[in-house]
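Private note to self, pasted from the team thread so I don't lose it. Backbone tokens:
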């Protein structure tokens, strides 16, 4: 068996893992910027993150090609794209461990990325909800809808929503 093809796939996988680790690091930095409400930092950061995401997308195609070519060399069908575990089961050591560990590490990084994205989205959604509630309080829109609290601390009664009319008196 020609191990050159397997080695090339491992190099591609390692490069992919480096990119995913960079994305995890970016998400940690993004979290700090969100908590600090650093809008300028978030703006410039989002552009760098977008570049990395494009780079990852381009590299995914390279990795898929490498997996397909390796699958063919191992006598596996290239479509549907085989799992790295399927390839690892058919290659000798040390490549077997390298592919298996790479696949495991990639799955872990993807889970971290998913959790960080969900946490950021929840934080942003909560912030937007608080902004909307503040605007409603400042404009009195919550009172028109019967929301909010009474002077005694109880919740106000629900009333039908009425259109907001601005006074023309100055």
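Design output:
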């Amino acid at each position: 068996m020609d191990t050159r093809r397997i080695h090339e796939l491992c190099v591609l996988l390692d490069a992919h893992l480096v990119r995913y680790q960079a994305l995890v690091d970016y998400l940690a930095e993004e979290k700090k910027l969100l908590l600090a409400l650093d809008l300028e930092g978030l703006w410039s950061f989002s552009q760098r993150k977008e570049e990395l995401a494009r780079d990852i997308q381009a590299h995914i195609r390279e990795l898929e090609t490498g997996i397909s070519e390796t699958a063919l060399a191992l006598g596996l069908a290239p479509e549907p794209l085989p799992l790295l575990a399927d390839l690892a089961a058919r290659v000798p050591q040390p490549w077997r461990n390298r592919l298996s560990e790479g696949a495991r590490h990639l799955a872990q990084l993807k889970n971290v990325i998913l959790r960080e994205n969900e946490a950021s989205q929840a934080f942003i959604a909560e912030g937007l909800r608080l902004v909307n509630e503040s605007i409603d309080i400042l404009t009195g829109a919550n009172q028109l809808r019967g929301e909010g609290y009474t002077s005694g601390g109880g919740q106000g009664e629900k009333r039908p929503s009425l259109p907001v009319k601005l006074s023309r008196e100055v």
